[in-house]
Every structure is written in structure tokens, then in C-alpha cells.
# Entry
Amino acid sequence: MELREIEIFLMLAEELHFGRTAERMRVTPARVSQVIKKQERAIGAELFKRTSRSVQLTPAGIVLRDGLAAGYQQIKEALASAVAVGRGITGELNVAYSAAWCGILVVAATDIFRARQPNCLVRIHESPLLDPIGPLRDGTYDIQLVELPIDEPDIVNGPVLFSEPRALVVPVGHPFARRGTVSLEDLSEAPLITVTGQPQYFLDHHYPHRTPEGRLIPRGPSTTAWQEVLALVGAGKGVSPTCARAAQYYSRPDVVYVPFSDAPLVEYGLLWTAANSTPKVQAFIETLLETARSSDLAGL
# Structure
């Protein structure tokens, strides 16, 4: 019995309908019937009871189905493993993310990827605020899902996976905390707590020095860790812009997240090095894109 014939038999055993089996196997109903009759002649017994209203497995058919199903799954897994080895999708893949909501998407994609590529071990990491590009360059990470913009000659910018509205995290007793929204012009009225370690163009994009109307934005303390940013805000040392979704993941009794009414969205995209565009990197990127398209990102 050829592999294709096994697949047709198992599909008919699942569907119990010649037309649907033919459609799923992309053959004609006559071809399905021909294959089943050939198998029945070889075995010397009926595999299916056919009437004008239904198709049912016979006792012989049940035995054949149960015996073939486990072996067929092993064949599929062996073929998938061989293809993965042939494409170089083996070994270890290190994927990093910058924020909790990015991590949820990475974990979902990893579950799918591991099922498809069992010979490739995926390790997930949280990307540091300090020197986020360094681990890509030195090979510690293969792929990162991070806030944009990143514009480096040796770093490949993949597609933007999703965008999020911005908010301003402020001390709970600050006048801004009682507002429904804040504007970019309001940044001139409180010290701005910033982070260090990123490229200057990244910092200028997320932590501007002037408002759209040209008013100076005062500087507060700077740090290299997000939890330290929250601690400084909670202590009344200033305010800091962030993604509005942070309120769901990083709530504290001493801070409030106030949405911006006029700030641009925060974009999140994939990064990897041009020198590391391997088959396994590209395979994971394809899986992540597929996961992002099928996910309800609003519910992350």
C-alpha cells in the first residue's frame, strides 16, 4: 500500500464521506473509490459499509485504521524531521522580546514552531533596556521583537507586527493623574524620566527634547531598567512616556497611566542581523508573522 493510498484511507475513515475526502485530498471521488476497492481486494475484506445515506467502517476497517494511524504519524514526523535537517532547522534559536505583551506573542509563536520543528530548541529571553542591539550583534539573540525605530546598517528590520497607543505614567498625586488624557504639549510641565543605552535617534523619538510647538521638555533622572523608571515616577521624580498597555502589566499603587490624546503610536517590529538570516531564523519569522496575523492582538 503506497503512502498516498494510506492517506486516502485514513481521510475517508475520518470523514466517512467520499466527496469530502476527495475534496480534502484534492482528488476525484472516483479516485477515492478506486483506492478503497484496491485495498479491499488486497485484504480480502470490506473496509467500509456503503449505503445511499452513510459510510461506516467495518470491523476490518477499524483494525486497519487503528493500525495505520500510529505508523502514519511516525512517518510524517520522520519526514518533517528530515526536511528540517535538510533546511538547517536544527540546534538552538534564541528569541528576545522587549515588553510583556510582545512576550505573549513570542510564546504563542514558539509553541507552534516547536510542534513543527521538533529538532530546533527555542529559548525565549527578555531583552534589556541597556544595549538592546548588542546581544543581536554578538549572537546571544537570533531574533528580537522590540519597539521601533531601529536603523542600523547591520540589522535587518522586519515588518511591523502591531502598533499600540501611548500613555504617560505619572505619580498618583500629580495633577495629570486626574485627567482623562494628556497631550505632547503637557510634557513641558514635568521632568521627563528617560532611559539610557539605546541609539540616540531612538531616544529622541520616544523622549523628545521639545514639544511640537517648540517648548522645552525638562529632563529628570535617567535609568537603564523599566522597574527603576516606575520607582522614580512613583517617588515623584518626574513622568515618563510608555505604551498604554503597560497599565495592564505594570500596575502600581503609586503611579497612574494617562493616555495621550495626540502622540503617535508605538510600533513593534522584528530585528535580526543580516549575517544571521539562516533558514531557521526565517522559519521562525514566518511562524511569528502567521501567529500575529491570526491572533487577537487587542487581547494580548
In short: Residues 9 and 24 are 12 Å apart (CA to CA). The chain has a mean pLDDT of 91. The domain at 3-87 is CATH 1.10.10.10 (Arc Repressor Mutant, subunit A). The two ends are 47 Å apart (CA to CA).
